[in-house]
Write a structure and sequence with these properties.
It is a single chain. This protein has 481 residues and is an alpha+beta fold. It is built from seven helices and 24 strands. It has helices at 2-28, 31-45, 80-86, 91-148, 380-383, 409-413, 454-478; strands at 51-53, 60-62, 164-165, 175-179, 182-191, 221-229, 235-244, 247-259, 264-271, 281-291, 297-301, 305-308, 325-330, 333-340, 349-356, 362-366, 369-371, 374-376, 387-389, 393-397, 417-419, 421-425, 433-434, 438-439. The strands form six sheets. Strands 3, 4, 5, 6 and 9 form a five-stranded antiparallel β-sheet that branches. Strands 7, 8, 10, 11 and 12 form a five-stranded antiparallel β-sheet that branches. Helix 1 packs antiparallel against helix 4 and helix 2 (31-45) runs antiparallel to helix 4 (91-148).
Length: 481
């Protein structure tokens, strides 16, 4: 803002100097001033030699004292001697005009030079300021772009990290993308050892129904990626992850990262709450490669890509808890309303579990939630925005409960809260459908824990997580990065 004000002041000065320059040069060649100068010279001549000789009687007299000849009374307005001395159009007047012109022109040259000097300084100031601004913006953009390029990373970036390489990797070709000038290779997986200080509790292990224990694990994982930019310009890359081990997620393998032309980088993407603590399979969704400068799309695909690993781990779709209630079913699509406690005496969690047991891939979207016919605030629309449900997977929606405000949870449980969902089939649009408004808080009961305290619950979760991670625990403990 200050820069703009200074620029405006300097531009106003420049305009003023230009106007002043034009006026100075206009006055130097003014016809009116020439005529006035000639008349002033003529008037001065009247008093140089006022005595003339009368053309009629020959008498001499002073014209400054007499209007006519005092001897004969003859007028002298047309007297040749008088006219020769006082006519402004004669040589005397011309000489006066030229002298005035020369004087004015000399003064105009001095004034013009002074004004032009100031004008040049003002223009130079504007140019310097503009160049400085362009330079600052250019440097800022360059430094900013340097900071946004993906760089090589270490798997353990922080002192609190203890990731080691797992014994399993991708089965088959590790190159997951070779389009748009970019080549993306999965180099392997890294995990926190089960024996480390990392939490290994299964978030849902405390529920009495053991069939769906390994849904979310606190064991953190990383996937190592190598990206080669074979193009001549920088590229931006996005690769979404739709599901891991049969559980729908809303994550990215690469999130709109930028890569320098002709460079290769190796970095690590963190995976959270992976079922079982190992990666058995992963479903990649939307993929896009763009030119960083022009933003032209060089490659785009919404096709599903399934990656399988060599991990010795198997799973089935987790079953809904016995206390969960089936609130909607159409063919291979099922929706359960689930209310449970993670451990004893904890506040109940309220969720929706959506199952897709078909071979079709769906995009899910929810409309507004309603209670008693009135729209209420929930995160349903946000949580289901552009969410994909791959074939043979389930999606857990945890942010479905209305904002409580001043009302208690029990009061909301007693209300009839409903929402509708649209399932858009991506392979066969004819299989798309929209549910009626279904009650999303229709719980048959609350799944209660059978443990006495959190430590017992944590031990049960750790045992479940350890069984899922057994495939790589031995090799991982010895490996270091």
């Amino acid at each position: 803002m200050i820069f703009i004000i200074i620029q405006a002041i300097i531009l106003a000065i420049i305009i003023g100097l230009i106007v002043q320059y034009i006026r100075v040069n206009a006055r130097a060649v003014s016809k009116t001033e020439f005529e006035q100068a000639a008349e002033r010279r003529a008037r001065r001549l009247r008093h140089v030699d006022p005595v003339i000789t009368c053309d009629y009687c020959g008498a001499k007299f002073d014209t400054s004292k007499y209007q006519v000849c005092p001897n004969c009374g003859a007028p002298y307005a047309k007297d040749a001697e008088w006219l020769r001395r006082h006519d402004p159009n004669l040589q005397w007047a011309d000489r006066a005009a030229k002298e005035e012109y020369d004087r004015k022109l000399a003064q105009a040259r001095v004034d013009s030079a002074r004004i032009l000097k100031r004008l040049r300084r003002a223009i130079a100031a504007v140019v310097v300021m503009d160049l400085a601004l362009v330079g600052v913006i250019g440097i800022g953009r360059y430094l900013g772009s340097q900071g946004t390029f993906q760089k090589d990373e270490k798997v353990n970036k922080y002192n609190s990290d203890h990731f080691v390489k797992t014994t399993y990797g991708l089965s088959g070709d590790p190159v997951v993308l070779d389009k748009g000038g970019l080549r993306v290779t999965v180099l392997g997986f890294y995990a926190e050892p089960v024996t480390s200080s990392a939490k290994t509790q299964d978030l849902n292990a405390s529920l009495p129904d053991g069939k769906y224990q390994l849904i979310q694990s606190d064991r953190e994982l990383k996937v190592a990626l190598k990206v080669e930019n074979r193009g001549k310009t920088a590229r931006r890359l996005t690769i979404d992850v739709d599901a891991i081990n049969g559980i729908g997620v809303n994550e990215s393998l690469v999130s709109y990262s930028q890569f320098r032309p002709g460079k290769t980088v190796i970095f690590y993407t963190r995976l959270y709450h992976v079922r079982g603590g190992v990666v058995k399979d992963m479903v990649l969704g939307d993929t896009m490669v763009r030119d960083s400068k022009s933003y032209d799309t060089l490659y785009s695909s919404k096709e599903e890509t399934r990656l399988s690993t060599t991990a010795k781990y198997s799973y089935d779709l987790p079953e809904a808890p016995k206390a969960g209630k089936l609130v909607y079913e159409k063919g291979d699509i099922q929706i359960y309303a689930v209310k449970y406690r993670v451990w004893k005496n904890a506040d109940p969690k309220r969720e929706l579990w959506i199952y897709n047991r078909s071979d079709e891939r769906y995009a899910i979207r929810s409309g507004e939630a309603k209670a008693g016919g009135q729209t209420i605030d929930t995160d349903l629309e946000t949580e289901t925005s552009d969410r994909l449900l791959p074939a043979h997977s389930m999606l857990l929606l945890s942010r479905v409960y209305p904002y409580l405000k001043d009302d208690g949870a029990q009061k909301y449980d007693a209300k009839d809260i409903r929402a509708a969902f649209t399932f858009s089939a991506l392979e066969d649009p004819a299989r798309s459908f929209t549910t009626p408004y279904i009650r999303i808080n229709d719980y048959s009961a609350v799944s209660e824990t059978a443990v006495e305290n959190e430590e017992t619950d944590r031990s049960a979760g750790s045992a479940a997580d350890a069984s899922g991670a057994a495939a790589d625990a031995g090799g991982s403990a010895a490996a270091t990065v």
